[in-house]
Structures are given as C-alpha cells and as structure tokens.
Specification:
The structure holds 2 protein chains of 2 kinds. Helices cover 28% and strands 14% of the residues of chain A. In chain A, strand 1 and strand 2 form a beta hairpin. In chain A, helix 6 packs across helix 8. Chain B is 48% helix and 4% strand. In chain B, strands 2-3 form a two-stranded antiparallel ribbon. The longest helix of chain B has 23 residues. Chain B is globular, with a radius of gyration of 24 Å. Classes of the chains: A alpha+beta, B mainly alpha. Chains A and B meet through strand 1, strand 2, helix 1, helix 5 and helix 7 of A and strand 1, helix 3, helix 7 and helix 8 of B.
Chain lengths: 243, 276
Amino acid sequence: MPTAHLRVWRGEDDGDYYEYDVEYGEGMVVLDVVHLLQAHQAPDFAVRWNCKAGKCGSCSAEVNGQPRLMCMTRMNTFIPGETITIAPLKTYPLIRDLVTDVSYNYEIAQTIPELKPRPREADGTHRMGQVDIDRGQEFRKCIECFLCMDVCHVIRDHEENKREFAGPRFFISLANVAMHPLDTNPQSALLDPAFGLSYCNITKCCTEVCPEGIHITDNGIIPMKERSIDRWDPLRKIFGGSR
Amino acid sequence: MAQAAGTTRRVRNMEAIQRRYGQTHRQDNWQQEPLLIILGLGAFAVYTTISALLGDYWPFEAGIDPATGHATYLSPYFEPLFRFEGLPKWFSPAIWILWAPLSFRTTCYYYRRSYYRAFFRSPPGCAVAEPAQTYTGETNFPLVLQNLHRYAMYVAIVFPIFLFYGAFKSFWFGGHIGGEFGIGVGSIILTINAVLLTLYTIGCHSFRHFVAGGLNQFTASPFRMVRRRLWEIFTIANENHRRWAWISMIFVGVADLYVHLVAGGIITDLNTWSQF
C-alpha cells in the first residue's frame, strides 16, 4: 500500500506543522487519508466534514497551498512520495487544526438584500420565462464551501477590508437577487460602495477555486460592476438600462 | 484497509502566522504565468511604442500605386490613416488612432486580471501573499478610472469596421476599389487581423453587458429576445476572451511588422500583382 507523507497544521494560532506517514488505499481522497490519520495516529485531530461528495462544502482546506475540498482531491493526483501539506483556511480565525471559524460569512449573509418580487398577476401567479430564470441557476449551485472567500486576496491579505467588502460568494448572492426576473428591490442593484464591489480587481482566483465551476467573475462580479457603472452611462437610457 | 504507519515528527514552521510577500505552500510553478505575461505584454508595449512613434521614419504603407500615391497595404496601427497638413514629420499618424484600442485593452477586464497579477503583484498568484501592506482595489484614483472601459468600448467597437475596410482595400492594387483586383500574403494577413480583432472586441465584457447583460426579463418583448440571442452569441466569444486577447494582440503586431518589412523592401510580398 502506498504511504502518504502528510504535513498537517496542528493546534491553534500558536500551533505548528506536524509530519505524519499514513498508509492509504487505492482510490482514496485526501479526506480519507485525514480520517486514517485521525483514526490511528491523532485521535484528537479536528477536521470538519459531512457529505464526502463535494456538495456540503464542509471539508475546505488548503492542500499544497491550493484552497480545495479535501473530499474532491484524489490522492493519485500527487507525485508518489511527495509531501502533502494540509493547512486550514487562512482567511478565517483558526479554532483548531483544520477547523476555522467561518461565522464572518453568515454575518455578511444577513446584510444581503432579499428578493422583493413584483406584484402577482391577475390570476395570482408569478410568471417567469424559463430563459429569464435560467441565468441565475448557475449562482444557485453555490455550496458555500467559502473557498472563493478564502482565496480572495482582498480579505486574505488585508484583514481590515472585511469591514467593507462582501466578497465573491456574496457578490454571487447579490447577482442572484439583482438578476432575478421578478426582483424589484432597489437595494439589490446598489453594490457600490455598500458592498465594496470596487475592491475586487477581478484577478479571478475565486473562479479558479470554485468546486462547482461557477463563473463567479465573468457571470457575477463583472456584470454587477457593469450594472454599477450604468448609472453614469447616458447611452444606457436609450437601451432601457437594467432590468 | 490502510492504517497508519509509524513516524510522527514535529516541524517548527511559523509561515502560517507570519505573512510575508510570496509566502505560499503552493508547489506548482505559479511564477510561470506572471512571468510570461510580463514578457508578452512588455514586448508588445515596447514594439508598439517604437513602431507607432517612428511614424514616417519607418514606412508603414506598402504596394504604393505610382499613379495615385496610395498604398495597397496599410499597417493596422495606422488604420484609418489621418494626415493633416502642417504637422511635423515626427508627429506620427498612429497617435490619432492608437489611443483608442490601447485604452480599450488597458481597461479590459482580462488585461486587468493579467497585469494586476504580473506587474502589480496584487496578488502574484492565487493564495500567494502579496507585497502591499494596504489595499483599496479600484475604489480610488487612479484605478477607479478603469470604469471608463465602457466608454473605451464605445470607441473601440467601430475599429473592426475600419480594419475590415482596410483589409478589403488590400485586395485592390493601390487600395483603389474597382481597380486591379488581386491577392497577396499581405491581403490575407490584414484580413485575418481584422477577424481576430473583431473576435476580441465582441467578446468584451462591457459589450456583452451593453447588448443584453443588463436585462432581467428577456421575454418581456421580441426585441429583448433578439438581444438575448445576440448576448448568447457574444457570450461564446466572451468565454474565449483571454485567447482572443493574446492571439489578436500578437497578430496585430505581426501584421504591422509585415507591412513595415514589405514597405522597406526587406521582404517581398507574394502576390498576384505585377507591379510590386
């Protein structure tokens, strides 16, 4: 059986990396190996996980420096004998080992404007064209793994910006509301400066790490930047503006 | 089932709590992409500056019809050609032209991604610590001016028309439409150049938004459905915006160089005309 050479963060902020050798089986993913480590060598090792299917977004970590879901990172993608470094998400306060406090995200989520649908039609329904609602389907694929928030340098390298900047996951939330065919909430279109959209310099790291393949930048952030600019563009009035 | 094998070793490493420029656990070659961007954009910027500012000191028209004095091939850096009496020779006609496509590319969302990473190191790579101690993004002057991309797009969107017109003229000796028809390597190069620059331009994020990206209810009218269909088509170009950005940028430089070399007699253009 092959042996994984792991280098894993242990402890809290004053912790260290520890090295472990763990034998693992064919077809395993990084989360399996972490579970083996937990079962046989480090029973107090803290790791958050749930579905093991890439859909709950719980097992986010930084594997060899790349923000990833551990359950979707296969061991056969590493070079045999390579040391695999597993670190907690760096953007969030560390609780212990691989577990971080992501409650910051839930605080932002509470500030996101809600959908305010236009009045019902005469027969009491809300009719939407399928092509109208299709656009937002991509945004609703988000599993809230918060890898995009972790990799975003605006808050990863600059803690102070957390006060001003909603972050990629929540720009997608905002786009989901602002582009909804029923939405009439004037707040959903006001991204700047309220949600700090201009802090984003569209370097697309969020898109690169998204396990759901959401085009966060191209289909979410940039269109929302463009909507923010619309109010300064007289030509938009000719073409009816947004919505 | 697999089980743990032996060794456990504590390693002192404070990297996780001491952030410093370039700090990362990434083991892939993340430095390669910014390096290539620096080389690519840098070479283009230097070449374009030299070529454009030399103006009449480095001939940019080839296949000149002695009867009319008009050229068959005109470098795309000078298309459309504006000449005004009384201006000194050192004032290059490219100055009237290049500010538009260059401001379009400078504020382009793709190029911003590239040069923010490569030149500004903001960040140098994903999950790689950046050097700046503070960061305000595009909230303040001068980077807030990136929002002028919309207006740069409004100007740049007409340039493919000029380039196609120039390419069309290059199939007629001396650029005289209806005169002596022919085809040369230069005609093909100028046509491909126009196609590539068009693909880059219609893939622009601002253009995509302008067409229908701001709409929430496509089905509200037949006109909106037409706009949605166009939006879908331009989205295909948008998904390949990076590709067309690089290919069109390199090719326009190649096209410019080709016309210069033919005009200077350094190389001979293969063509069906007997006169050049």
